[in-house]
Amino acid sequence: ELTESLIAEATNLGMLELRTGAKAVDVVVEEEGKAVTGVVLDDGCVVHGSEVILAMGAWSCEVEAWPALRGKVRMPMSGIKSSSLVYRDTRMPAVPDPHALFCSDDANGCHLEVYPRPDGDIYICGLGGSPQLRPEDLRSLNPSDVQPELSRAAAGHKSLSTMTSLIDSGKGPDIKQACLRPILPDALPAIGRLSDSINNLYIVAGHNCWGILWSLVSGEAMAEVVVYGRPKHISLTNFEPTRFTTLP
C-alpha cells in the first residue's frame, strides 16, 4: 500500500513513467566506461537516463551477470523466502494506533508476528522454516514463481487459532503468500554507488525484513547522494555497495 501510494502520487505529479512486466537485463555504459546512459530491457528497449538507481531486492545479484558489468561489480545478494498470511473480515474492532504482537517460538515451529490493520484485516508472518536461496537459485527464479510454503502456512494458522477467537479456525487464512527478503553476507543493506569507476550507477537493496521501515530514509539518502553527491542526514559508510568488491 505504501509503494502504491508513492507511485500514484509521483504519477499524478507527472514525475514518473511506470513500466510493468519489463525486466532489466543490462545497462549501457559509455565508451570511456565512467557512466551509464540507460538500462536495457529484456525486449531490447533501452530506457535512457542521466542517473540509474537499481532497486531489485533479492534479484540484485543478477547485476553481476549483466554483460556491461560482468567482472566489474560484486553484489552477493541472497533471498530468504518467508511465507505470510492475511485474514479478512475478522470482526476485529478498529485499532486507532499501530499495534503489533511478537510471539516467542511455539510448538508448531512458529514465532508469530501479528499485525492488526485499520481495515480489520490481520497480517501474520513469522511462520518459521524460511529457506535461504543462493544467488544461483535466484537467477533462474521469476518473482511470480515465489509461492508460500503450505506446511508453514498450516502451522501458522494452527498457532494463531489457539490465540484468538477473531478468526474462523476451520476456514483458514484468506491469503497465503510469500516474499523473498533480500540479505547480504553482513546483513546490512547496500546503499550508494555500485562501482567506484562508474559515476552515476547506484543501488539500494538488501534491507531484509526491514524494507518498509527503512524505505523512506533509504530513499531520502539515495536522493541526496544523487543530487548533492553525499547524504546530508545519515552516514552511509557502513552501507557502501563496493564493500564486496574484494570478496572471492
Features:
FAD/NAD(P)-binding domain; 6-stranded antiparallel β-sheet; 12 strands; 248 residues; alpha+beta; elongated; D-Amino Acid Oxidase, Chain A, domain 2; 18% helix
Q: Compute the number of strand runs.
A: 12
Biggest β-sheet strands, sense, barrel: 6 strands, antiparallel
State the fourth-level CATH superfamily of the largest domain.
Answer: FAD/NAD(P)-binding domain
The number of domains is: 2
Rounded to the nearest angstrom, the radius of gyration is 20 Å
- CATH class categorisation of the largest domain: Alpha Beta
What structural class should be given to the helix and strand makeup? alpha+beta
| Number of distinct helices | 4
Instruction: Kindly state the percentage of residues in helix.
Output: 10-25%
Low-confidence segments: none
Shape: elongated
Tell me what the CATH architecture of the largest domain is: 3-Layer(bba) Sandwich
Overall pLDDT score: 92
CATH fold name of the largest domain: FAD/NAD(P)-binding domain
Compute the separation of the termini in Å. Answer: 39 Å
SSE series: HEEEEEEEEEHHEEEH
Strand content: 15-25%
GO cellular component, one term: cytoplasm
InterPro entries: FAD-dep_OxRdtase (IPR006076), FAD/NAD-bd_sf (IPR036188)
Protein name: FAD dependent oxidoreductase domain-containing protein
